Amino acid sequence: MDLELNYFSNGPEFSDRSQLTQPEITQCMSVMEALRNWREADRALSEASRRYMRLNESDMRAIRMLMQAQKQGRVVTPKDIAHEVGISSASTTKLIDRLVVAGHLIRAPHPKDQRTICIDVTPQTAQAARETVGRQHARRFAAAAALSSDERDVVVRFLTALAEADEPQGDLAAQ
Question: Where are the transmembrane segments (predicted)?
């Protein structure tokens, strides 16, 4: 187990363990360790995808958002990309320029607003992303399919509770 997990998870000042036996505490720690291992594997896979496509994190976020928008039939402007990625309009222009030159994006006239343009993912980039993400999704789906129906229900409840537990609280929510 890594230092962060040991430091933050083992202290009784953060979690009430009075109703748990030592084997139950150990089992909970194993769940936390398995989550950490999955997060590391997910992070490594994302990094490998970025290297394969020669993209940085902002580029990948923009492309993911554009592909989702294309699936939904939505038009995306540079302003939409700036909002999604959390960067300035100047940085968005540089991002789009870089991805157009690299053959990942295309600019097109906006269908309703002549003052702006819309941005689309090239068919080649969409195909490459679908293939890599598709393979990843298929492996994850197979892992879920290998569980029983009851086990999947437990996992869904756990992950939903974990997502709720990870909502920013107090000082973090204000930022």
Answer: none
